[in-house]
Each structure stands twice: as structure tokens, then as C-alpha cells.
Design goal:
The mean pLDDT is 92. This protein has 350 residues and is of the alpha+beta class. The chain folds into two domains: 6-236, Rossmann fold (3-Layer(aba) Sandwich), CATH 3.40.50.300; 245-349, OB fold (Dihydrolipoamide Acetyltransferase, E2P) (Beta Barrel), CATH 2.40.50. Strand 11 (246-252) and strand 12 (257-260) form a beta hairpin. Helix 5 (174-190) runs parallel beside helix 6 (202-208). The two termini are 40 Å apart. The protein has helices at residues 48-56, 102-106, 115-128, 144-156, 174-190, 202-208, 226-231, 236-241, and strands spanning 6-17, 20-32, 37-41, 63-68, 71-74, 87-90, 162-166, 195-199, 211-216, 219-224, 246-252, 257-260, 263-267, 276-281, 286-288, 295-304, 307-313, 319-324, 335-340, 344-345, 347-349. The longest helix has 17 residues, at 174-190. 22% of the residues lie in helices and 36% in strands. The strands form four sheets. A six-stranded mixed beta sheet has the order 6-7-8-3-9-10, sandwiched between helices. The structure holds adenosine-5'-diphosphate and magnesium ion. Adenosine-5'-diphosphate binds next to helix 1. The site of magnesium ion has 3 residues, from helix 1.
């Protein structure tokens, strides 16, 4: 196996404050191989941008190391200058130069190259991002999505070894965001780029990344692909952060099964016997069943094409979500029969 393209080992980062060192990232390790798109996904303030700045060489390490192609570029004692790392960055406020044309923005990082090579590369990049005919335009003449494509072309033009994208779509409309994330993924794959995206937006992460690290307070709590994070969350935090769902209380019996208000299920998580647990119930884990003995009160009903999302109150008072595929005539206040679709659900210590 070749060295990972990018490797972080036990990285600790922090800011010096009047009160002392404020550690914001701790014991963070990850490995990303060539051609892969990785993502750090986590709430605002968890340390994502700080990690990216450390990878580009702008943030000193308190502990650990960062390596590109197996060669250490950052340790607490030594740091390779940012311009020697060949790391490209694209930020959320795409920050195109307003007084430069699209052509000149994309060519900005190629100023020292011969004019012919530069023109050729600019043309190649604009065609890659689907903007071949717009090289003469100025940033204010472009839509937000087009500006993002230019910013991407500009970041890719000098052929960086690694591309870092910091919340690149957060200034765009929600609708456009997910579509553009998918398009940018295709562009990066065609360019055979290796990239790290950071975002707080799960849809963006899922649309773009091959592998995702969920961050909580400066640490990666789970690294995996979108499917695994959704279906096999490692902690209650990941379960709550990824996708819709509710953590319902249960109790694990001697025989290994977990007793919930609606019957017994099996746990896919590490929980011990006779312990109080919380079980992750996604809206698609419940089915309507008129003959089921388990009854719940419909307290909220909203159309979420193609079906309806129900909020249901169980006799104990706890509420769960259920995705119903079609209009079944139930109204708020009605009693609905429900049953579980699956016999195994992720469980966590309470
Ligand atoms: P994210 O990108 O995930 O929103 P950041 O990496 O920007 O998080 O910030 C992580 C933590 O570090 C936050 O608590 C933030 O307030 C703090 N922080 C970020 N930049 C600085 C700075 N220059 N000086 C002091 N604290 C900072
Ligand atoms: Mg940030």
C-alpha cells in the first residue's frame, strides 16, 4: 500500500489566550488516499477550519504530525512553508477578484507561467467546470453557482497536490447547494484531485465525499462512508447529528434483546445487559399497521414529498417520527396503529 496522500496523526491544535492555551482540536488522526474526497462534518465551532489551516501550514501544531505523501510537513518542531506544500484552498466566500475577468481570475495562480501555457490551462479549466464561453465576464455578472465554479477552476489551475474546501457552498441557496456539491464532485473526480471538504451541512457532505469524519468538539468521533454513518452511527452524538430520528429509551434484558415501548428489538451497538439504553429510531423504521396493538396519537403531520412525515406520541408520552408513503386519511389527533419495520436498531448507553 502506498503512503496515504494526506495523513494526520494525533494532531493537537489550539489558540493562545490570556488565560493560557485553549486547545480546540485534540488527538485528531485521519488518512486520505490519492484521488479520494474526504470530509470533516461537524457543528460550527468544532474545529474544522482550524484543521484545514493546519494542513495548509498556517496553524502550528501543539502535538502530532501532518504528512503529505509520507513526508512530514508539520510537527511541533518543524513546519514546511505554506507555499511549498502545493495545497489549494477554496473558501465559502468565494473571494474572486472583482476587478479581474473570469479568465484572469482562473489564471491568477499561473502568473509566472508562459502566456501560451497559461491561456491553454485556463481554457482547459473553464471547460472542465462548464464555463468555456464565459471567460470574458466579470464576477458580478455571474450567478452564485457560476462564481463557485470559477473559484474551483482557480484553485485547481496550479495543479495542487491537495485541495481544501472550507464550507464552499454555505452562501448558496439550499436547493442549489446539494446540486452544485454533486457537480463539483464530478469535476474533482474528472480532475483526479484529492480533496478535503469541511462543512456543517450533512447533505453537502453526503453529496460530495467518499469518506466522512464526524467531528465533535475537536475530535473525530466516527470515520466512514455516508451509508455507515447513517445506518451504523458509533455514538449517540453521531446518531443525533446525521439524519432525522429520535433516541427512544429502552432497557436491555438478559437475553440480549432490548425492550421498547413497542416490543423487543435487537441492538447493533455495544450496550451491556440490564442497562438503560437509548435506541435510534429513524422515520423509515416505523410502518402504519391498522391491526397493530401498538397505538400512538398523531400530533403533527407534514407533507414531505413523496410521502408524509408523522410525529406520533406514544402512551408513555415520548414522541417518534414516522415516514408514511402515502395519504392514509389520518388527521392530527387520530390514533394510529404502528409497528417496527426492522428487528435490529442502533443502541447507545443512556
Ligand atoms: P469550525 O470551522 O468548525 O466552525 P473553528 O476551527 O473556526 O471551527 O474554531 C474552533 C474553535 O476555535 C472555536 O471555539 C473558535 O472560537 C476558536 N477559534 C477559532 N479561531 C480562533 C482564533 N484565531 N483565536 C482564538 N480562538 C479561535
Ligand atoms: Mg469554519
Amino acid at each position: 500500500m502506498p503512503h496515504p496522500h494526506l495523513q494526520l496523526d494525533h494532531v493537537r491544535l489550539g489558540y493562545r489566550m490570556p488565560t493560557g492555551m485553549h486547545v480546540v482540536v485534540d488527538d485528531l488522526s485521519l488518512a486520505l488516499h490519492e484521488g479520494r474526497i474526504g470530509c470533516l462534518l461537524g457543528p460550527s465551532g468544532c474545529g474544522k477550519s482550524t484543521v484545514l489551516r493546519a494542513i495548509s501550514g498556517f496553524e502550528p501544531l501543539l502535538a502530532g504530525s501532518i504528512a503529505l505523501h509520507g513526508e512530514a510537513v508539520s510537527t511541533p518542531r518543524r513546519s514546511l512553508a505554506p507555499e511549498k506544500r502545493r495545497v489549494g484552498v477554496m473558501f465559502q466566500d468565494y473571494a474572486l477578484f472583482p476587478h479581474l475577468s473570469v479568465d484572469d481570475n482562473v489564471g491568477f495562480g499561473l502568473r509566472r507561467e508562459p502566456a501560451a501555457a497559461r491561456t491553454g490551462r485556463v481554457r482547459e479549466l473553464l471547460s472542465l467546470v462548464g464555463m468555456a464561453s464565459l471567460g470574458g465576464k466579470y464576477p458580478h455578472e455571474l450567478s452564485g453557482g457560476q462564481q463557485q465554479r470559477v473559484a474551483l477552476a482557480r484553485a485547481l489551475a496550479p495543479r495542487p497536490e491537495l485541495l481544501l474546501l472550507d464550507e464552499p457552498f454555505s452562501s448558496l441557496d439550499v436547493d442549489l447547494r446539494e446540486r452544485l456539491a454533486g457537480e463539483i464532485r464530478d469535476i474533482l473526480k474528472e480532475a483526479e484531485a484529492t480533496a478535503i471538504l469541511v462543512t456543517h451541512d450533512q447533505a453537502e457532505a453526503f453529496a460530495m465525499a467518499d469518506e466522512i469524519g464526524v467531528m465533535e468538539q475537536g475530535r473525530i468521533v466516527q470515520w466512514g462512508n455516508a451509508y455507515d454513518l447513517y445506518h451504523h452511527p458509533a455514538t449517540a452524538f453521531v446518531a443525533g447529528f446525521i439524519g432525522a430520528g429520535v433516541l427512544v429509551p429502552g432497557r436491555r434484558g438478559d437475553n440480549g434483546s432490548i425492550r421498547l415501548e413497542f416490543g423487543d428489538i435487537h441492538a447493533s451497538g455495544p450496550v451491556s445487559n440490564n442497562a438503560e439504553v437509548r435506541v435510534l429510531l429513524r422515520p423509515d423504521d416505523l410502518l402504519a399497521d391498522a391491526h397493530s396493538p401498538i397505538r400512538a396519537r398523531l400530533v403533527h403531520k407534514v407533507f414531505r414529498g413523496p410521502g408524509y412525515l408523522y410525529t406520533l406520541r406514544l402512551p408513555s408520552g415520548s414522541e417518534v417520527l414516522a415516514q408514511m408513503p402515502r395519504e392514509d386519511g389520518h388527521r392530527v389527533g387520530d390514533e394510529v396503529g404502528i409497528r417496527l419495520r426492522t428487528g435490529t436498531l442502533p443502541a447507545f448507553p443512556a
